[in-house]
Amino acid sequence: MPRVLNAIVAVCPDRGIGNKGNLPWHPIRLSKEFAHFRKMTATPSVKGKQNVVIMGKKTWYSIPEKNRPLSNRINIVLSRECKVPPAGAHYLASDFSSALRLIDTELADQADQVWVIGGSSLYKEMMGSTGMRRLFVTQILKQFECDTFLPEISLDKYRLLPEFPDVPQELQEENGIQYRFKVYESIQE
């Protein structure tokens, strides 16, 4: 069965996902939102396997050093410049398709779900790829200054799911910031 590609992202109303190498709402912490990210990306559906997180080099370095690599997940960093994985990363791939080949070959016995966690160009490539794709989007209901953005989610290519297992539907609020979890699934041609 072909592998489902997942992406997870938190976005401001203008689709902003980052500012100066941090989350737009930095230094405010959204602990429950982060716990949702960790649960979704770190919980495999198959016992004895691990999920894979794929990220660009800037996303890797935006993670505080003490939290790298993301625990209980196989961390793949994409870079065309690096010759070896950044310190702490498990694998290095030159591009998205190389990372997917690595997962389907060398990591096939240990990899379960695949999660794209940023940045913008990687989200764009994943969203435009073929096969089954799911977008786990946290809609932050407050605008912050952003310099990095999520590509538009095309509703002729994706549909909003009414619900998804383990994804809360009710409005969330932390530190005065409201947000909602949404899940989009690609429409098969």
What does this structure look like?
The chain is of the alpha/beta class and 189 residues long. The chain has one domain: 3-Layer(aba) Sandwich (Dihydrofolate Reductase, subunit A), CATH 3.40.430. It is 19% helix and 31% strand. The chain contains 4 helices and 11 strands. It has helices at 31-42, 57-62, 96-104, 120-127; strands at 5-11, 16-18, 50-56, 73-78, 91-93, 111-116, 133-140, 148-149, 158-160, 172-174, 177-186. Strands 1, 3, 4, 5, 6, 7, 9, 10 and 11 form a 9-stranded mixed sheet that branches. A two-stranded antiparallel ribbon has the order 2-8. Helix 2 links the parallel strand 3 and strand 4 (73-78). The radius of gyration is 16 Å and the shape is globular. The model has no long low-confidence stretch (mean pLDDT 95). Pathway: Cofactor biosynthesis; tetrahydrofolate biosynthesis; 5,6,7,8-tetrahydrofolate from 7,8-dihydrofolate: step 1/1.
Write the layout of secondary structure elements.
Elements: E1 5-11, E2 16-18, H1 31-42, E3 50-56, H2 57-62, E4 73-78, E5 91-93, H3 96-104, E6 111-116, H4 120-127, E7 133-140, E8 148-149, E9 158-160, E10 172-174, E11 177-186
Parallel strand pairs: 1-6, 1-7, 3-4, 3-6, 4-5
Antiparallel strand pairs: 2-8, 7-11, 9-11, 10-11
Write out key terms for the chains shown.
alpha/beta
In oligomeric terms, what are we looking at? single chain
Number of domains: 1
Q: What is the overall shape?
A: globular
CATH domain topology: Dihydrofolate Reductase, subunit A
Percentage of residues assigned to helices:
10-25%
Characterize the largest beta sheet: strand count, sense, and whether it forms a barrel: 9 strands, mixed
Helix and strand string, N-terminal first? EEHEHEEHEHEEEEE
